[in-house]
Design brief:
Low-confidence stretches: 1-10
Structural class: mainly alpha
Number of strands: 0
Helix content: over 70%
Distance between the termini: 33 Å
Shape: globular
Number of helices: 9
Radius of gyration: 23 Å
Length: 241
C-alpha cells in the first residue's frame, strides 16, 4: 500500500550494520548498555553458579578453588578490563575490534543471503535427518562423545545420501569454517599466550590444571572427529534445488 516503505521491516542484521556504519561509537554504546544489563544478572546468579559447581565437583574441588580465585581477582568490569590490558597490547586490541567488526558485517551479509535463498528450511530438514541417523540407543545414545560410533553413524548417512545436502547449506558451512580458520591463523598465537599466562597464574595459586588439560585434550579429540565428518560432507556433491 502507498505510504509504506518497501524496506520495512528491516532485518535485524541490516539495522545493526546500518547503525554501526552511521555512528562510529555505536559498538561502544552497545557494549556499555550490555554491561549495564549483564552486571546485575551476573551478580544475581553467582550463587547459582557456585552451587552448581559444588554439586558437580565438590566443595573442596579444584573447580571451586578456581571459581573462588576468579571471584577474588575479578570483582568488577574494570578488573576484567585491567586483566585484558595486562595480557593484550593496545595495538592487538584494536586489531581484534577491527576484525570483529569486519566479521560481523560479513556474517550479516551471509545470513541475509542464507535467508533470501530459503535455505533455513532446507538446512533444518537435512540436519534433522542427519541427527536422527546419528542417534542410536545402543551405539550412540548421546553425542557427548562424538568420536567412534556416533561419527560412524553420521558419516554412513552422509555417504548413503550423497547429493542431497543443499548447496546453500554447504556455502554457509564453508563460510563459518573459513571464519574460524581465519581467527586461528590471525590470533592463534595470542590465544596460546593468554592461556599460558592464565594457567601460570592458576598454578601459582596452588590450583591443579590437570583436570583442565584432560578436558581440553578430550575436546580437541572430539573436534578432530567433527572436522573429519565435515570433510566427508564437503566432499559430497550438493543439490541446488
Amino acid at each position: 500500500s502507498s505510504g509504506i516503505n518497501a524496506e520495512w521491516p528491516l532485518r535485524p542484521g541490516k539495522q545493526i550494520a546500518d547503525c554501526a556504519r552511521a555512528d562510529e561509537s555505536f559498538y561502544t554504546k552497545a557494549a556499555e548498555k550490555a554491561r549495564a544489563r549483564l552486571e546485575p544478572l551476573i551478580v544475581e546468579n553467582l550463587g547459582s553458579v557456585k552451587n552448581s559447581l559444588i554439586c558437580h565437583f565438590g566443595e573442596k574441588s579444584d573447580a571451586m578453588t578456581l571459581f573462588s580465585l576468579i571471584q577474588d581477582r575479578i570483582t568488577s568490569y574494570d578488573d576484567l578490563v585491567t586483566l585484558m590490558n595486562t595480557h593484550i597490547s593496545g595495538d592487538t586490541q584494536d586489531s581484534l575490534v577491527a576484525g570483529a567488526k569486519s566479521g560481523i558485517y560479513d556474517f550479516f551479509d551471509g545470513s541475509n543471503d542464507f535467508c533470501d535463498a530459503g535455505c533455513v528450511h532446507k538446512t533444518t530438514k537435512y540436519f534433522k535427518k542427519l541427527f536422527i541417523a546419528t542417534h542410536d540407543a545402543e551405539t550412540c545414545p548421546t553425542i557427548e562423545f562424538y568420536c567412534g560410533d556416533c561419527q560412524a553413524n553420521a558419516e554412513s548417512f552422509i555417504m548413503g545420501s550423497a547429493g542431497s545436502v543443499p548447496c546453500c547449506t554447504m556455502n554457509a558451512l564453508d563460510s563459518i569454517t573459513s571464519t574460524i580458520q581465519s581467527v586461528i591463523e590471525n590470533y592463534g598465537e595470542l590465544l596460546i599466550d593468554i592461556e599460558a599466562a592464565v594457567t601460570e597464574t592458576v598454578e601459582e595459586s596452588g590450583v591443579s590444571t590437570d583436570g583442565y588439560e584432560a578436558v581440553k585434550a578430550a575436546a580437541m579429540e572430539q573436534a578432530a572427529c567433527l572436522g573429519d565428518t565435515y570433510d566427508e560432507l564437503d566432499s559430497e556433491a550438493c543439490v541446488e534445488a
